[in-house]
Amino acid sequence: MAPTPSIWELREVTETGSTNTDLLQAAEAGEIAHRTVLRTDHQTAGRGRLDRRWDAPAGTNLLASMYLDMAPSKAVDAMHRVGLAVVEAVAELEPTDSTVGLKWPNDVLLHGTKLAGVLAQRSTTASGIVVGFGVNVGWAPPGAARVHDVDTSVTPAGLLQRVLVAFDALPDDISSAYRAGLQTLGRRVRVELPGSVNVFGEAVDVDANGRLVVRLDDGLMRVFDVGDVVHLRSAS
Ligand code: BTN
């Protein structure tokens, strides 16, 4: 039977390859229900966006995935919800002058540098979506931020509880909250595309499919659904 909406089925393992891969496999085998969450202390094959790896020393960071049995058309919404929930959970730790926000498509920034990443994956056979999130809690790679920069008492398991509570507190329609949290809008950006192609312009909007709308330096309006965005100076 599916859990009631306010219940999360939380599973925790000491080590695994990737929590996203585990939940995708479990969903395909029909072994998990909506709102199953898997957290691990260590991943040996953690997956990042654009086929990158996501690594962290054992026990240092929040590495978790949730299975949401929602229509594929809701994948972008699910991914945005998780990013926003991480933003809210971390913002509570620095309630005044919080500098936590999002960089398109769904990186969480603290003090302008990357704190967390979100990876949504859909199986070809299961009906739902797996959304994984990695948050730097006690360790960060060079140039990135960690939660301990603002609060050294936070543990990965404790932060997960905060993220799940924040997720459930989000409104049904998160479009305005996502736009408000997206520090990319109004910024001059460099969009790094596959194949080492860079384009420059002003990020002006996010469309209904979650694509970034950029006014390029030659005036052309262009939408992007993949790519790495670098925030440059403010466009105004
Ligand atoms: C990114 O590249 O910004 C997204 C990183 C997502 C990493 C998390 S860690 C938990 C979950 N399991 C994975 O293999 N990846 C995601």
Provide structural commentary.
- A hairpin with a 3-residue loop joins strand 4 and strand 5 (107-110).
- The protein has helices at residues 19-28, 75-91, 156-169, 175-181, and strands at 9-16, 36-43, 62-68, 100-103, 107-110, 113-122, 129-135, 187-193, 197-206, 212-216, 221-224, 228-234.
- Helix 2 (75-91) packs across helix 3 (156-169) and helix 2 (75-91) packs across helix 4 (175-181).
- 39% of the residues are buried.
- The longest helix has 17 residues, at 75-91.
- It is globular.
- Strands 1-2-3-7-6-5-4 form a seven-stranded mixed sheet, with helices on both faces. Strands 11-10-9-8-12 form a five-stranded antiparallel sheet, with no helix packed on it.
- With 236 residues, it is of the alpha+beta class.
- It folds into two domains: 9-180, BirA Bifunctional Protein, domain 2; 185-234, SH3 type barrels.
- The structure holds biotin.
- Biotin is lined by residues 18-20, 43, 46-49, 52, 54, 63-65, 107, 117-119, 132-134.
Give the number of DSSP strands. Answer: 12
Distinct small molecules = biotin
**Poorly predicted regions:** none
User: What is the CATH fold-level name of the largest domain?
Assistant: BirA Bifunctional Protein, domain 2
Specify the helix fraction band.
10-25%
Helix-strand layout with pairing:
Blueprint lengths: L8 E8 L2 H10 L7 E8 L18 E7 L6 H17 L8 E4 L3 E4 L2 E10 L6 E7 L20 H14 L5 H7 L5 E7 L3 E10 L5 E5 L4 E4 L3 E7 L2
Parallel strand pairs: 1-2
Antiparallel strand pairs: 2-3, 3-7, 4-5, 5-6, 6-7, 8-9, 8-12, 9-10, 10-11
Bound molecules: biotin.
